[in-house]
User: What shape does this take?
Amino acid sequence: MTLAPPSSRVQLTDDGKLRHFLSLEHLSRPLLEDILDTAAGFVDVGGRAIKKVPLLRGKTVVNLFFESSTRTRSTFELAAKRLSADVLTLDIAKSATSKGETLLDTLRNLEAMAADMFVVRHQDSGAPFFIAEQVTPRVAVINAGDGRHAHPTQAMLDMYTIRHYKGGFEGLKVAIVGDILHSRVARSQIHALNILGAEEVRVIAPRTLLPADADALGATVFTDMVQGIEDVDVVIMLRLQKERMDSALLPSEGEFFRLYGLTNEKLSHAKPDAIVMHPGPINRGVEIASEVADGPRSVILNQVTFGIAVRMAVMSMAISGQESLDAAQAAREESGHGH
Amino acid sequence: MTLAPPSSRVQLTDDGKLRHFLSLEHLSRPLLEDILDTAAGFVDVGGRAIKKVPLLRGKTVVNLFFESSTRTRSTFELAAKRLSADVLTLDIAKSATSKGETLLDTLRNLEAMAADMFVVRHQDSGAPFFIAEQVTPRVAVINAGDGRHAHPTQAMLDMYTIRHYKGGFEGLKVAIVGDILHSRVARSQIHALNILGAEEVRVIAPRTLLPADADALGATVFTDMVQGIEDVDVVIMLRLQKERMDSALLPSEGEFFRLYGLTNEKLSHAKPDAIVMHPGPINRGVEIASEVADGPRSVILNQVTFGIAVRMAVMSMAISGQESLDAAQAAREESGHGH
Amino acid sequence: MTLAPPSSRVQLTDDGKLRHFLSLEHLSRPLLEDILDTAAGFVDVGGRAIKKVPLLRGKTVVNLFFESSTRTRSTFELAAKRLSADVLTLDIAKSATSKGETLLDTLRNLEAMAADMFVVRHQDSGAPFFIAEQVTPRVAVINAGDGRHAHPTQAMLDMYTIRHYKGGFEGLKVAIVGDILHSRVARSQIHALNILGAEEVRVIAPRTLLPADADALGATVFTDMVQGIEDVDVVIMLRLQKERMDSALLPSEGEFFRLYGLTNEKLSHAKPDAIVMHPGPINRGVEIASEVADGPRSVILNQVTFGIAVRMAVMSMAISGQESLDAAQAAREESGHGH
Assistant: This one.
């Protein structure tokens, strides 16, 4: 089939450049590698005395957080500021929408203020797609986490981290452990690992925290931690939402830790040079033991560092994609074919 | 009478330059036209790849919001940042005043921090005037809406919009429709339209939403929508505050919409090229039908775009007025006449 | 004793440069004078048309406010912006820590985002010390007030103010009046005044608002206001926390004002050219009469102005101290002695 699938049609320009960043499904391996390569340059910026580049100077980035998340908001805010953008943060839950304005009217108003980018966090799966389909061509949309669907910048910073420590994805076995059912992070990671050519992706979870269609995830399913972790190169622990405990999905924190919490003992079944990752914030003694989180194989804090760089990369690439659209449009109008 | 009236004495320097922007009453037509002309340059800035000019670089703009308004705050914040100012936003209701400090002491402290401008939103009519009378000569005060009194930047962006689409004000008939009684926007619009030479200003509202002294407004009063809208060039719909519904002032939303809500049918009584405006956020199906809000005669979103430019104009003109005062003062001191 | 005491070991580099600013105890007179001299340059910046210097351009300053304080946060935010830093403000009480993350994990994450400075306000005495001991060498920590322990930038702006009006500290008698027991400000002021060589420091308070070890404060203790204020050059009034009234510590506001509130009458017992200071926000008619607060001897608002400059000085000196550490470390690694 040569027709691009819907999500890539929304995310890419006609000549394949990123213009929105919503989901990793259907994106190509070269594009993901381009993001990782671009991020590498921004990792250097973070190490300089002056951590600032002028790429987004005079651009307006609007943080549209329908669901609040201090950490994710902070990383995007820092990434935008290091790109020299002006940042406006809107806690939409408390703002104009509460005056009875529709979401679309809020968006139209922000567009009219000449916003260049919306960084969207939303409790509903698909909301950033809806927004990307509705915004004017000039405005780039970045998904900062939507419902149970996707968290693509998190997945890409994870890919950056894996490539940094493992040199690439070929032959790699990666295990993702924990609450797969509710995790937008896991969903995005599985897509990214498959696109980038990892040898095997495994998910490890109790049956109650696996989706009904677990077989369709694109990963091998394990309910036993020791079996699942056997011989892997990378272990990605997911954060266990405390709310799940209160529902009937889980027995107890202690029981979960005994069965799925990552300890040095369980980690010993992975490859000797396996790295340990976690999207944070970590629950010590729930999904991960402190001996592992603070141990020599943990790269959890490096993920955070790479995360700023990956967000700078995605933001600057999307703005650049939008500008190439603008230029193409201007050229068409010049030659009398557009309007 | 050659004596300048009190409000213009506060707002202007001795040689007639803007130094505060509090109310449109008593301002001259050339001054309002100067604001509109200055804004035109900033509309261009909003269309550029780098939406930033250095006019207020190194200046400190303090948003003093005693009444909260995400939208108005955002537009002033963006305007200030595009002028390269540093912006400090204070939600005064939750801040130092709650520690028992007086308003004056809060102001004096912000002045002592070398603030250059206060953007004031207040639930009490006249509060920005009080503040302007109290601040040190160096600090410019911009009214971002006070009680039922004035919202002059909103009115000026409306004037910009009208001039943009109609070329000027001569011969224009303008109808303002809705809750005139509680609207600071309407009050400022009527002043502006009369100063700029509109032929006729009409207000259209049920008796319960008209002030007792409606005849003194400077506008022709209509209680019938169809009669009032007849042959006008511009229809400005006001936002209906839901709170009014609960009081005895209004029958019901449905009844209000039937009598005063703007539909294509009612709009057909205006001139064929009449434009439709609204200060936002709009209540669809209450004061305006979606067919009109989203229709070809609506310029509601253009108002938002022009609003950033008008705020940039007013802010830069007031700072420039304050600086000319400073320079004059320095010259007087130099020549030995100062104190 | 030649060994540096613990607090100065944490705060200073091996060659005696400031790298954190946590407490004035054990700091040397030349260092405090260096801070005051550096601040003098920044007072000039605050008077310029463009109040901005590029010293912290491309640096990330994180305001970590565990205890909320709009005024202190605003002054640090303005100081950082005038140094051209990027500022991220975190209201920690409502943020990641509430997700069950430990303080240390929050710090490690912010470090991983390449933060250069933490400005810490905390309800617990010693928290900024704990943080300074834990952060990576690259990150400077500034104490913006911790429990009852210290508020060193407030004390240094007070010292700046005294030096500005009195020319120096030699021969000076300074009285600090009010709630000594709960005041971190008083504790820091007494340290600073003794280090800088004031002749006599007095504290004046009712017994219930004096610490049990008042004699160890480094100040002469008075319970009678008129006796205590006799012949002093500087009167520093402390803010009376209204909460204290409800506890059994104080009779009533009226009674406190009668005994300890600063009036012109009480002030007449000080030297004729004595200055009056207060950290703000003031309680008029509780600890200070308006006739004094607004009178010719009050320098309360000048303190605020100097406060921005002193914070700019401390922030730029600490960053510079950290950078000299980095450079020394790099040199050691170059010559093969590092690790």
Notes: Residues 1-5 of chain B have pLDDT under 50 and may be disordered.
